[in-house]
Amino acid sequence: MIRVFEPKLSYSDKYSVIKAVVNNQISGTAENVQIFEDKLANLFDRKFAIALTNGTTALEMALRTLNLKENDEVIVPSFTIISCLSAIIRSSAKPVFCDVDKDSWNMTLDDVKRVVTPNTKALIMVHTYGLPADAKNITEFCQKEGIKIIEDTAEAHGQYESGIKCGSFGLLSTLSFYANKHITTGEGGAILTDSEELYLKLKKMVNLDFGKINRFNHSNLYWNHRLGGLQAALGIAQINGVNKTIKNKQKQAKIYDNAFSGSENLFSIPQKFYGSTENHYWVYGIVLKKDDERDKLMSYLEKENIQTRAFFWPLHLQDAIKEYSLNTKELKNSEHIGKNGLYLPIGKHMSLKKQRYVISKILKFYGF
């Protein structure tokens, strides 16, 4: 089976973890964790980084720092991972869905403006599948309107928008280091910020708020979301290889692009640029033009030992929110992309031979 993604660690990655084991740097208080956080802050042009258990936790902790109330609204693109939705609901706020651009698959300023109300207090700005959101314009608008931005940079390690690093736009930015991310710790995540006040608060929130005088006299009922030293050791090595990872995916994407030229009437391929920003292909997705064809293609490829993955299912169509009264209208792009999109195998595990095999089977499905 050719997997849609498969981790492949380098010698440097393995050496870094083994070194941590030898030096007993394994806990959440290991020196490796602080080193990893410092490197993250530097990589994303931030003052502070807080490493924690995963990207979902990062979103939830970031939103909790905003002290949102029941009638406060948080804008989120409908086309994204459910972690964004669950974090909003668990923060006591109300999610408000905006649509995304049909070609970049990301939220734009126009999408945001359509759903802003006097109750809008925050916005989760998500960069999806390799291209950035309309980050600079959205940020400038939100600053004027007093809307706080949580920037979900889980899929945009090493990406830029308007020449500015993704991960440096929001009041708080979140990262995921799941195994399929450009920087991985297996499981793991982080929050980035330039606010020392929020940094110090978050350090307490993810580490049980131990007392300074009496360690076990706690002022708050906070959480234990620490990242371990072994994961941090892997992350340190991964940071050094992120540019190589991106270049490899861009090379593979070019092969797919060339092979699928002329197929525009059957499916669309990823947009190569958003303004001056080049796609770095966290995934290589295609969106079929014909409804009800995606599952047939995926089933066919599965029989040919090729794993694919359906696109995110729109948040406003999730079974988990049927009990809520939320806006679910005028989200046509999110619905079309979610119902007809899938992504193909890409990454270090893919040889040119395997990639050509995937291409040949897709073309065969369409009678070429």
Q: Mean of residue pLDDT?
A: 96
Total helix count?
12
Biggest sheet descriptor: 7 strands, mixed
Q: Give the oligomer, counting copies of the same chain as homo and different chains as hetero.
A: single chain
| Order of secondary-structure elements | HHEHEHEHEHEEEEEHHHEEEEHEHEH
Q: Could you tell me the CATH topology label of the largest domain.
A: Aspartate Aminotransferase, domain 2
Radius of gyration: 21 Å
Helix content: 25-40%
Q: How many separate domains?
A: 2
Strand content: 15-25%
Global outline: globular
State the CATH superfamily name of the largest domain. Answer: Type I PLP-dependent aspartate aminotransferase-like (Major domain)
The CATH architecture of the largest domain would be 3-Layer(aba) Sandwich
Q: Give the class-level CATH name of the largest domain.
A: Alpha Beta
Number of beta-strand segments: 15
Structure in words:
By secondary structure, the protein is of the alpha/beta class. It has two domains: 11-240, Type I PLP-dependent aspartate aminotransferase-like (Major domain) (Aspartate Aminotransferase, domain 2, 3-Layer(aba) Sandwich), CATH 3.40.640; 242-365, Alpha-Beta Complex (Aspartate Aminotransferase, domain 1), CATH 3.90.1150. Helices cover 36% and strands 16% of the residues. It has twelve helices and 15 strands. It has helices at residues 11-22, 31-43, 55-64, 82-90, 109-113, 135-145, 196-205, 229-240, 242-259, 294-303, 332-340, 352-365; strands at residues 48-52, 73-77, 94-98, 120-126, 148-152, 160-161, 164-165, 172-176, 189-193, 267-268, 273-274, 277-278, 284-288, 309-310, 341-344. The chain has a seven-stranded mixed β-sheet, sandwiched between helices. Strands 10-13-15-14 form a four-stranded antiparallel β-sheet. Strand 6 (160-161) and strand 7 form a beta hairpin. Helix 1 (11-22) packs antiparallel against helix 8. It is globular and about 75 Å long. The mean pLDDT is 96.
